[in-house]
Design a protein that fits this description.
This protein has 287 residues and is an alpha+beta fold. It folds into 3 domains: 46 residues, no CATH class; 149 residues, Cyclophilin-like (Cyclophilin, Beta Barrel), CATH 2.40.100; 55 residues, no CATH class. 25% of the residues lie in helices and 23% in strands. An 8-stranded antiparallel barrel has the order 3-4-9-7-8-6-5-13.
Length: 287
């Protein structure tokens, strides 16, 4: 098992070294798979990393100093599909803004993804677990601490930066979302702490990324077409509307397997092609 593990990590390393986005050469370590120092120095990589590497990043972030928000600070976000900039609202959410700056400037967000995108609603990112080898835990990670809610009078309009959380209002950690359309129903339930101030078209580009849901929905129909054999179709449930929809079974495919796979896709808002957060930094505006 150890030999297989080492070979997998070596293949990952070779893939990284052939990537045009690589910024530093990582050394192979037979115990951890990838050298940590090299890993932290290459924020443009979308390479998946080990649990030990994630733990290293979290500890690095915990030891990063908590900085005050300066009047001329802005947020620079560089993604695999473009760059955009945001301003922060420390006057209404000081703890969230300081937390975000700490996470960003420690490199915590580098290499994570926008793991959830919903057309007409929002894009969500900031989960360190989007960097590991398990796609099923995306959306479940955090930095190891939580920030108390700072609900305020800022509305969730298009371009707003807000903090994701669980059912507990005081459970925000590192995951954030950006509204691509007005979402006023979230007001006073989630903490707004910033807003996009340039290149807002980049968030539109991100939210248009094909997801499991959008692809499965596109191949489905609200009713079985007239004249079709019902046995060639499976019934599914659209999780966003609760309505029954139907999808035609591909030739020679097991109906139950096809139904399970299509329903799994319908339940996923994860982009089929990763949208990488290459880097986030909070620093004085350079304009």
């Amino acid at each position: 098992m150890k030999t297989i593990y080492q070979l997998v990590n070596l293949l990952i390393l070779l893939t990284f070294l052939s990537s045009k986005d690589s910024l530093a050469i990582m050394k192979y370590n037979p115990n951890l798979g990838l050298d940590m120092k090299g890993l932290i120095n290459q924020p443009n990589s979308s390479i998946k990393i080990t649990e030990q590497a994630i733990e290293f990043i979290i500890n690095k972030t915990k030891n990063h100093s908590i900085e005050n928000i300066n009047a001329d600070d802005v947020v620079y976000i560089e993604t695999s599909v473009g760059k955009f900039k945001l301003k922060l609202f420390p006057e209404v959410a000081p703890k969230h803004c300081k937390n975000f700056k700490r996470l960003a400037n420690s490199g915590f967000y580098d290499g994570t993804t926008f793991h959830r995108v919903i057309k007409g609603f929002m894009i969500q990112g900031g989960d360190i677990l989007s960097r590991d080898f398990n796609p099923d835990n995306d959306g479940m990670g955090g930095p190891g601490w939580i920030i108390p809610a700072e609900f305020n009078n800022k509305s969730h309009k298009r371009g707003i930066l807000s903090m994701a959380r669980s059912t507990d209002p005081n459970s925000a950690g590192s995951q954030f979302f950006i509204c691509v359309e007005d979402a006023f129903h979230l007001d006073n339930n989630y903490t707004v702490f910033g807003e996009v101030i340039n290149n807002i078209h980049i968030i539109d580009r991100i939210v248009k990324s094909p997801t499991g849901y959008s692809v499965a929905k596109m191949s489905s129909k609200p009713v079985i077409p007239a004249g079709e054999n019902k046995e060639n179709w499976v019934n599914l449930t659209d999780p966003k509307t609760g309505k029954e929809i139907f999808s035609k079974i591909p030739l020679n495919m097991n109906p139950n397997s096809y139904r399970q796979e299509q329903q799994r896709l319908l339940n996923s808002d994860k982009p089929l092609s990763e949208i990488i957060i290459k880097k986030i930094r909070v620093k004085p505006d350079d304009n």
